[in-house]
Structures are given as C-alpha cells and as structure tokens.
Design a protein that fits this description.
The chain contains 13 helices and 17 strands. It is of the alpha+beta class.
Length: about 475
C-alpha cells in the first residue's frame, strides 16, 4: 500500500492524542467503510492481537487522507481480555448487560419484529460479538488491501470474523427514504472554533471530562495494582484506582433496515397526489427531502434553508401546526418544547441532557439512484436490503440513548399524543388496547389521524461497545498479561 499523508490538527483542551479518531471525526474524506464484527477465540491471543493492531489505530489528532482504523470492545470482549471481575463491574450496567438482554429489550421497545431473536447479529443465541473493528479508506481498491491485511492479522491471532458489514454513502448526504440527513449534530465546546450558546461540554460524549451537570461521567476503573506500569491516569471517583475510561466512550450500534418501498407505498395510498404524499412523508420526518425544516418552511421546501438548524418550537410552532409534535426530528430532539416542562428554557435544558453524537453510515443500494421521492414512488420493490448503521457515542447509555428510545421514540403518549410511536423508527403494533401505529397531524379545526402504520424500519442487529482511549488499549493489551 502507498504511504499515506496525514494532516495533524492541534491538540485542544481535550487529549486528542489519547483518543481514537472516531470520537473526533466521521471520516468524511474516506467514503469507503466497513464494520467488522469480531470474536476472540483465545484471551491471550486477543491481547496479542490488540498489541499488533495498536500501531495502525488512528488517533484524534490525525486527519487521515487514505485510511483509518478504530476499535471498540463489547462486554464479552473486555472479559475475554482477562480483566478482574471487580474492575469489570465498574462499567455501566447497560453495557455489561448488553442490548439484547430481556430488560434492555423492554426498555428499547425491541419487541415483535424488532426483537433480538430476529437479529442477524447480536442475537443472544448467535455468535458472541467481542469487538467492532471500523475500517475506512479513500477508495475501494485500497479498502480491499486493508481488509486483506486485517484478515491475515485475525488469522494469526485466532480472531474470528463473524461478519463484515458494508456501508454506502448516498448522494447529497441523504438516507434511503430520500431525506437529507446528519444536519443536527451537537457542537462540542472544547472543539468549537468559536464559543457559542448551546455548545456541549465534552463530558456529554467522552469519558474523563465534565458534562452538563458539571460532573465527570461514571468511568470504568481498575485497581492500582493492576496497572504497575502506570499507563492509566488516576480515577476521578477514587484516587486509589486508575481510570480505564478516560478519553474513551460508549458506542451504541444498531443496524436499522429501511423498508423504502413500503414507506412510499403507504404515503401514496394515504394521498391523492404525489405532492401530497411527499408532504405527508415530510410531516412524519419533520423536514422536507432537501432538509428544509417544516418549522421555517411549512408550505414548500426552500433550498436556501436545506442545512438550517437554527430553529425552535416553543414560540414558533408550539402546537405542531407546521412540524407535527410526533414528527421524527421533533421526538428525537425536542429542542425547546416539551409538554412536561413549563418554559422554553426548562425544555431546552432537559432536551440537551439527552443528545447523542452520531457517527453512522447507510448501507445497501438505493431503491432509485436519484433518491428523489417522485422517482422512488414509481419503483417496484426490488427485494434488496438497505438501511442505516446507526452509531452514536454517549457517556451515559441510559440517560442518553435509552432515554430517547424509551421516552421519546417509542412512548405512544409523547407530547400529549395517544397512539403514536415515532413514525419513522418507532415500533408500530397493536396489543389489546395498546396501539402505537398511528400518526397525528395537527390541523385547524380538527386534527387528522393516519392509522395502521407498518414498521418502516426494523432492527437487524445491535450491541453496546466501549471505545477505549489509546493508553487504555495499551493497558488492555499488555498490562493484563
């Protein structure tokens, strides 16, 4: 492989040199990506594998132009490396139990079609996923070289490749339903070029830094005697222990299959014209396909506002007449309007405490190359699988990811609604008197309800991972020998 040119960014208040690069960037200059699900066959060999891999891992200072590699470990992967039970217990409960554990399934709404028993990976009865290796490259041929190199490394150290999940960047930054994605991302205060209101402290997403509560998030640690080489910093919670989590984070991974034909078929069947179908779909999403927010552009999309993220709901659209209260973007990020709060300020503060840093990519071929709704509505179902590898980084799995899934995405009475789960990613079903398969469209004088929503997405796999910092990788690979 050719020698790579790497641009370095300046270290900031954050210890970027000790962070893996996935925390800092999405590798937009590297369109080729694969997510490799790994199983460790032997603990000693697994530690040797980490040692061998270490020099290839991209840290947070680098801005790679040709390749990048980062690794995350599941709870079983951490255990495979030989960590002491008392030290393992310092990880978050949600991480230790795993996404497919029955109670976690209940919390996440993973029932019926979404249930882990139907997943192609992460299924409790399937193969154990110990690690996630994220590989990025600037072109396809280079990616094939990287994969061949990494497969040889796996063979050498007894690491089994369970599955290689492909990705596919779509045109105009869209997702498979045809809507512009990745517009609303939290800005990390310590990385911002200029300080602004609403910037998030790094501790909301990274371990070892203060969060919105002005506290350090809970971080896994090890006994001082387990770190005789002094690789790890002192724990904030207990000075007699060493911080294993600093400059790392927790990574949530859910493979979400998107039923694109079913989505646009439903919109057509509920509408009298193609334009009305696009409007209904936009109402469910909360933005027009080009990204224009309904709150600012209620009647027609405005190309000049396709990337606009500076809007709120409390004063601009409290009753959801522009952007419905149950719309996907309004549920997953309510901004300054929550019916449980008494003011815009309180709502904004509450919503901020549940944000996530998204890093995922789509996968599979588009139903139509144009990704234009009018073209997709003319297409037959091609039977091909496509969707989104949803990946997010959080310092608190329960407060951030699980709260949003449980209270905002799947709760059928969110915002004063009655039978509405998130229209796009929610689990739609009927069970006795419980219904979650409706979508309410506020309208004057009478609101309109759309019923019998099918599931437009379904979970195909998932797991919780820990992304260790660079020093922590060294510790896990060597100090536990």
């Amino acid at each position: 492989m050719a020698a790579e040119t790497i641009n370095l960014i300046q270290d900031s208040e954050l210890e970027l040199h000790d962070m893996q690069g996935i925390l800092i960037r999405g590798y937009g200059l590297l369109p080729e990506a694969k997510y490799l699900l790994l199983k460790f066959e032997d603990g000693n060999l697994a530690r040797s594998y980490l040692q061998s891999l270490y020099m290839y891992i991209t840290n947070g200072l680098a801005k790679p132009l040709e390749q990048a590699i980062n690794i995350a470990l599941s709870a079983s992967g951490i255990k495979s490396l030989g960590i002491e039970e008392n030290d393992f217990n310092t990880f978050l409960r949600e991480f230790k139990e795993g996404m497919a554990e029955p109670h976690r399934q209940f919390v996440l709404g993973d029932e019926g079609e979404f249930s882990a028993e139907h997943w192609s990976w992460g299924n409790p009865s399937g193969e154990q996923v110990d690690a996630l290796l994220m590989v990025f490259a600037h072109e396809h041929e280079y990616m094939e070289e990287l994969l061949e190199r990494e497969k040889k490394r796996m063979e050498k150290f007894g690491v089994k490749l369970i599955e290689a999940l492909p990705t596919a960047l779509l045109r105009d930054h869209k997702e498979h339903f045809g809507f512009r994605d990745d517009i609303s991302q939290p800005i990390i205060k310590e990385l911002a070029k200029s300080k602004g209101k609403g910037d998030f402290p790094a501790g909301e997403f990274f371990l070892g830094y203060k969060n919105l509560y002005d506290e350090h998030p809970l971080s896994p640690s090890v006994a001082e005697k387990e770190d005789p080489k002094g690789l790890l910093p002192v724990s904030y919670e207990d000075p007699s222990r060493r911080d294993l989590g600093k400059n790392g984070t927790y990574l949530v991974f859910r493979q979400m299959e998107q039923q694109v034909f079913r989505f646009w078929e439903y919109m057509r069947n509920q509408s009298t014209s193609e334009q009305e179908a696009i409007l209904l779909a936009s109402k469910m999403v909360g933005r027009w396909p080009d990204g224009s927010p309904l709150t600012l552009c209620p009647n027609n999309p405005n190309p000049e506002k396709s990337l606009e993220n500076g809007f709120n709901y409390w004063n601009e659209d409290r009753y959801g007449l522009k952007c419905p209260i149950g719309a996907h973007i309004r549920r997953t990020n309510p901004r300054d309007h929550l019916v449980t709060e008494t003011s815009a300020k309180d709502s904004e503060e509450m919503a901020a405490k549940h944000r996530m840093l998204r890093k995922g990519r789509p996968y599979g071929p588009p139903l139509d190359e144009t990704l234009e709704p009018l073209d997709m509505m003319l297409k037959a179902d091609d039977g091909k699988e496509r969707g989104l590898h949803f990946i997010c980084l959080v310092s608190d799995i329960r407060r951030q990811f699980e709260f949003v899934q449980n209270i905002w995405v799947n709760f059928h009475k969110f915002g004063g609604l009655n039978n509405d789960a998130d229209p796009i990613i929610g689990n739609h079903f009927k069970e006795g008197e419980l219904k979650t398969d409706e979508f309410s469209l506020p309208h004057y004088p009478v609101r309109k309800r759309f019923k019998n929503l099918p599931n437009f997405t379904r979970v195909r796999g998932g797991a919780y991972f820990f992304v260790p910092g660079m020093k922590a990788i060294k510790f896990l690979a060597k100090a536990l020998e």
